[in-house]
Design goal:
single chain, 192 residues, Rossmann fold, alpha/beta, globular, six-stranded mixed β-sheet
Length: 192
């Protein structure tokens, strides 16, 4: 059995500005950096060490991974966030009500089914090809939400309504099946 920690990046400038941030990028804020440091402290206190690590090619995910662990890592484009097309960088007030489904396709983005398939296939590929037993993956809120949805039927815990920055989703992986074992969220109130 393998264990993978799937983590959302730390808070970014666009998160603070309430801008739609998919394949476009913005840097971590000071709060985002501190969130990653708090998550790292949790991992260290629990004695969790990673043999391998992977991140989306987005700067916010790579920077978060580098703050979380001192381990060589690979950047994988398919771990990136949902592509919101021409809505990228626009105000979040323009988002339609959930679920988004095919809404962004008409604007050059991805459908929800495409995001779910991409992230699920990529995670399966990573875990099936590695011999490591403890893996760290840093990705994005909507990508993680769709991965969670794909594996909801096997999960032992329910997904929160909103995925907090730097929350840790602990999955076990065996026989081509992911099981969500635990969601670790941190108290960031003292840094915000």
């Amino acid at each position: 059995m393998k264990t993978v920690y799937l983590v959302r990046h730390g808070q970014t400038l666009f998160n603070v500005q309430h801008k739609i941030q998919g394949v476009c990028d913005s840097p971590l804020t000071k709060t985002g950096i501190n969130q990653a440091k708090i998550a790292r402290e949790h991992l260290e206190k629990q004695g969790i060490q990673f043999e391998e690590a992977y991140a989306s090619t987005s700067e916010r995910a790579v920077d978060t991974l580098e703050l979380l662990a001192d381990v060589p890592y690979k950047r994988i484009k398919e771990l990136r966030e949902w592509n919101f097309g021409t809505y990228e960088g626009e105000g979040e007030h323009l988002n339609p009500p959930l679920p988004y489904e095919d809404f962004f396709v008409q604007f050059g983005g991805e459908s929800q089914a495409q995001v779910e398939e991409r992230i699920s296939h990529t995670m399966e590929k990573i875990l099936s090809e590695t011999s490591a037993s403890h893996i760290l993956v840093v990705s994005h809120g909507a990508a993680i939400a769709n991965f969670n949805r794909h594996w909801a039927h096997t999960s032992r815990v329910g997904k929160p309504n909103r995925i907090q920055n730097c929350s840790l989703f602990k999955y076990s992986y065996q026989a081509s099946k992911f099981v969500l074992e635990e969601i670790i969220e941190h108290d960031f109130s003292h840094i915000q």
